Amino acid sequence: MLSRMTNVWRNIFAKEKTDRDLDDEVRSYSDLLAQERIREGMNPQEARRAARLHLGGVEQVKEEVRQARTGAWLDSAFQDFRYAARTLRKNPGFSAIAILTLALGIGANTAIFTLTYAVILKSLPVPNPQQLVRYTFRSGTQDLGLSGPLYDALRKHGQAIQDLLAWTDSSLSVQENGAVTSVDGALISGNGFRVLELQPVIGRVFTDADDQPAGGPNGYQALLSYAYWKDHFQGRTSAVGRSLIINGKPVTIIGILPQGFEGVVAGERADIVMPLSFEEVLNDPQPLRHHPGSFSLTVIGRLNPGATLGNAQSNLSATENSVRDEADPSHRFLGGFFAAFQLGVESGRTGRSALKLIYSRPLIVLEILVGMVLLLCCANTALLVLARVSSRFREFAVRSALGASGRRLFQQVLSEVAILAFCGLMAGMALGWIAATSLVSVLAAIGQPPPLDATPQAAVLAFTTAISVLSAFVAGAWPASRASRVAPIVGLKQNSAGSSSRALGKWIVPSQVAVSVVLLAAASLLAQSFFHLRLQDSGFHSENAVMAEVDLTPNKISETVATRDAQRIVDALTAAPGVDSAAMMSSPPLKGWWSSSHYYSLDHKGAVHTDLQIWPEVVSPDYFSAIGTPIREGRAFNRADATAAQVCILSESAAHNFFPGEEAPGRFVYTGGSDASLDGKSPASPENICQVIGIAADARFESLREPPERAIYRIIPQNEVGPDFFLVVRSSNVAVATSAIREAVRKAVPGAPEPTVFTFDQLVAAHLHQERMLTALSACFATVALLLTALGLYGLLSRNVIMRRKEIGLRLALGASPRDALVLVLRQGLRLIVIGGAVGLVAAFATAKLLGTLLVGLQPSKPLLLIAAVALFFAVAVATSCIPAWRAARVDPMEALRYE
Amino acid sequence: MSPDQSNDQTNLLQGTLDMMILKSLALDQMHGLGISRRIEQITKGTFQVKPGSLFPALHRMEEEGWLVSSWGESENNRRAKYYRLTKAGRRQLESETQRWSRISLAIARALEAS
Asked: Which H or E element spans position A670?
C-alpha cells in the first residue's frame, strides 16, 4: 500500500523527472537496437532508421507507459484542475460572482446549522449520552423542573434506570480579593457524576458523602469548570485543595471538571458546581430541597444496559400515582396549582435546554427557508456555468474532435465547479461563523453572556462540507453533462450555441421565481406576526418607562425587611428630581416569571367562584400611573390604602370571573383556607379578605403571545414581597431615570447589589427576540432570494439579447420598431416570471399552512401583505427585464447585419 | 501487451508476458532490448515482444515491486536501464510457473482425451 502511495506521488508530483527518465530509456533502447544492426553489417544511417521503425512512435510508447502507471486517472484530474483554475483566473468577474453566490448560500446554511446543532442536536459531553433520559414536569409549553420530593420518589421507584441525578443552576456569590462577585454555578446530587460517568481532569468528583447537610464532616466541597479554572487559577494544579468563600461559607475545591462540560442545561453554564445539599445555604432560612411545591430540579437518569426509553416510560406510567402520592401526600401542590402538569420521561442525550423548547420549531422553519436559499444559489451558479459552457461550445467541440472523451469533458466542467465550490466553502464558512456569532449574541438576555457556544464544531464543518459538495454537484452536473455531449460538428455551426441555455432557463428561472415568492410570502407572514405582537395592546403603556431589578437575596433578609427596603427605595425615587412617578412590583412582566395564586369570591346569587391561577401582583400605590395600565372602574390605590384595611384591584377578566355580570368595586375576594368555608358563612381571617376598590385593564404579564392573565393587585406594606423585586420609573429621560434608580437604591439600602436597569422597550424586544430573529432572518433570506432571482433573470435575458442580436437587427431592418424589440424581450421575461409566480403563489399558501402548524401563535396571513410582497417582487423582476429589453431596442440593424 | 502476429509467431496469452519477463531476468539483470532478445531466444523465436508492450509491462511490474531498475553501462559502453528481480519478483515467478504448468498439463490432457 505504501509503495503504491509513493508510486502515485512519483507519477504525479515527480512527473517531469519520471518522464525524462522514460525518454532516456526509450532512446537508449533505440541506440542499442541500431548498434545491433550495425554489428550485423548495416550502415549506421539505415540502422538508426530501422531501429526507429521497429520502435513505432516514440511518443505512443511513452503514452502507453504513462497509461499503465498508477494514478493515471488522478493525473488527468490534476491536469483538469490546473486547467480549470487557469480558466477561472482568466474570468475573474464570472468566478467572483459564482463564488459569492455559493458563499452566500453556504454561509447562511452554516450559520443556521450552527445554531440548530448547538440548540437541538449537540449531545452532552459525557460517555454514552444516548443512555441518558430526562424526567419532565410540563403542561403545554411550560417545562418546569421537578421538586425534591418528586426526585426522591422517582429515584425510589425507577426500575429501568441505574440511577437518577438532580441538577439545578444557581448563581453563587464568591468572595474574591475582598469583593463579592456573582458566578454562574450549579448544584448536583452526590451521585450526579457517577450517573454522568464523568471523570475530573484533576482531583475527584462528588460522592454521596459530599451531599450531606453542612457538606459532611469536612465542610462543603466544590468543583470548578475547566474554563473557570484556566481563568481564575491559570490552570494551576495547586487550585485543588484551595479554599473559597461562597455565599459566606468556606468551601474546598476538590476537582476540576473536563473541558467542554458546562452543565446539563444548555444555555446555562456552571462555573462552580456544589453538592445539592448546599441549597440549604442558598435558601437559608427556608430551604426548598424537600418542599413539595418548589419545582427547580433537572432530573436525568441513565438507563440500565439494554433498557430503552420505552421501558422507562412504561415504568413511569405504572408508578406515577405512587410517585405523586409520596412526593406530595396532601396533594396541595400536585393536585392544586400544578394539577395540569404531567410527569414524563424523554431522551436526555442533549440534556435539558430552555432554548430548545423555545427555538427548536423556529429553527426548523429557518432551516427550511435557508435550504431554499441554498437551492437558489445552486440554480444561479448552474445558470452561470451553463452560460459559460455554451459560450465555449466551440472549444468543447474542438476538444472532442481532437479525441477528448465525453467523460473527460464532463470532468473538466465539474472541476471548474468544484474549484468554485471550494472557494465558496471557505468564504461561506467564514461568513457563516460571523453570522452565527452575532446571532448567538442576539439570543443573549440583557447584560448576559451568550448562552450558546457558536465556535465551529466538527459536526458543523462536516455539514458545511457536505452541502458544498452537494451544491457543486447540483450546480455542475447539468452544465457538465451538456458539455460532455457536444458533438464535434457543433463547433462548425456557429449559431447553434446557446439554445440549450435558453431551454434550461425555461426551467431554472421560473423555479427561482417560485422559490423567491415562497420566501417572500414566508417573510411577510413572519413580519406580520411580529408586528402584531409588538403593536398589540399589552396592557402596559410604558414605552418610556425605565425598569430595574433589585435583587437583595444575597443580603439574606426576611420578607418584612425586603418590603421595608422596597418602600424606602420607592420613597427615595418619588422624591428624586426628574422622576414623574415611581413604583415597585413583585413579579415583572415578560421576563419569563410565572406566578400564581388562589382566590375565591361569593357572588350575589350565592355562588362561589374559585380561581386557582390568578396572577398575584404586590405593588406600591403609584404603580398604575407609573406602568400606565388604565383603571377602568373605581379608583387606583392611594397612600391611605397602605395603612387602612386590605383592599385590592382586579383586572377586568378577573373581575368578570369573580363577579359575572355584577359590579365588582366594593365587593370582597378571599384567599387562604378553602372555599368550602364560605358555605358555613365563616370566611377566612381578616388578612385574607380584601375589598375590591377598582378594576384595571387586562395586562399580559407572562407573554405577549398568550391571552392576558387574570390578575389581582394588592399593596405594600400590608402585603409583603420577596427580596427580589422590580422598580418602574416614569421620567422624561432614560439617563435621568437610570441614575435616579441607582442613587435611590444606594441611599435607601446601603450595601445592596447594583440593580439591573433596562427600559420597557428593551424588555419587549428581548421577550420577542424569537419573532424578531425569525422576521429579520427571513427578510434577509427573501432579499437575497430576490437579488439572486433578479440576477438569474437578467443574465438569461441579456444572453438571449446578445444571441438574438442578428435576428433582432433583421427584424428592425425589415421595419419592426424599437418598441417591438423591447416588447419581444419583455414578453419573454414576463412569461418566465408569470409561470414561476403562479407556481410560487400556490406553494406560498402551502408554506403558510406549514408555518402555522410549526409556529404557535402565528397570526393567520393577511392577503394584503402577501400581495404587497408579490407586487414588490414583480416590480423588481420587470425592472430587471427592462435593461436587456432596452438594449434590444437599441440594436443597430446595420451593425447586426454586418456581424456575420 | 499486443504481441506480434506475423506468420509463425504466436499471440501471447494474457499474463504470459509478465512470466516471460520474470523468467528472462531469473539469472541476471538485463536492459529492455536484452529482455526482448532473451525472450526470443528462449522461445526459439516464437514470441517477439515489441517496445509498445515491453515498456508498459516493465514499468507496471516495477510499480508492483517485482522488479527494480538502475542505470548502467551496456556491453559496448552505452548507457542503458537495467532491470533486476526482487524477492517478490522471484516469488511471483515461482507461482506463475506453477500455475502455468498446471494449466498446460490440463490443456494437454483435454486435447488427448478427445
From this structure: strand A668-671
Q: Does A10 reach chain B within 8 Å, measured CB to CB?
A: no
Note the pLDDT of residue A182: 78
* Partners of residue A728 on adjacent β-strands: A547, A583
3-state secondary structure A695-722: EECCCCCCCCCCCCCCEEEEECCCCCCC
Is the CB of B59 inside 8 Å of chain A's CB atoms? yes
With an 8 Å Cβ cutoff, are A61 and B55 in contact? yes
State how far the Cα of B38 lies from the Cα of B17, in Å rounded to an integer: 12
* Residues on chain A touching B32 (C-beta within 8 angstroms): 25, 28-29
Of A713, A712, A745, the residue nearest A729 (C-alpha)? A745
Show the cell assigned to A63: 503514452
Report the C-alpha gap between A282 and A247 in whole angstroms: 7
Q: Which residues of B touch A24 (CB under 8 A)?
A: 79, 81
* Entry pTM: 0.68
Chain A residues with CB-CB distance to B74 below 8 A: 28, 32
What is this model's ipTM? 0.83
A64–B32 CB contact, under 8 Å: no
CB contact, 8 Å: A67 with chain B?
A: yes
Give strand pairing partners of B82. B31, B70
End-to-end Cα, chain B, rounded Å:
32
Confidence of residue A618 (pLDDT cuts 50, 70, 90): very high
d(CA B48, CA A327): 97
Q: Residue A337 to residues A294, A296, A342, A681, A694: CA-CA distances in angstroms?
A: 12, 15, 12, 25, 26
Q: Over range A785-811, report the average pLDDT.
A: 82
Which of B31, B56, B76 is facing A64, going by the closest CB pair? B56
Find, in chain B, the residue whose alpha carbon is nearest to that of A60: B52
Residues A289, A98: Cα–Cα separation, whole Å: 61
Judge: A68–B65 Cβ closer than 8 Å, yes or no: no
Return d(Cα A384, Cα A95) in angstroms, integer.
Answer: 9
A54 CB near a chain B CB, below 8 Å? yes
For chain B, how many residues are written? 114
Please state, in angstroms and as integers, the Cα–Cα distance from residue A595 to each residue in A282, A343, A713, following that order.
Answer: 21, 20, 13
CA distance A82 to chain B (A): 26
Q: Which residues of A touch B80 (CB under 8 A)?
A: 28-29, 32
E strands present in A552-607? 579-585, 597-602
Residue A678, phi then psi, degrees to nearest 5: -65, -35
Q: Which three cell numbers stand for residue A60?
A: 505512443
CB contact under 8 A, B51 and A65: no
Would you call B80 an interface residue with chain A, using a CB distance cutoff of 8 Å? yes
pLDDT tens-digit map of A518-537:
888 888 888 888 888 888 88
Question: Which of A164, A208, A211 lies closest to A319 in space, CA to CA?
Answer: A164
- Please judge whether A28 and B65 are an interchain contact, meaning their C-beta atoms are less than 8 angstroms apart: no
Which candidate, A772, A758, A862, places its Cα nearest to that of A358?
Answer: A772
The grid cell for A324 is: 405523586
List chain A residues with CB under 8 Å of B86.
Answer: none
Separation CA A535–CA A522 (nearest Å): 20
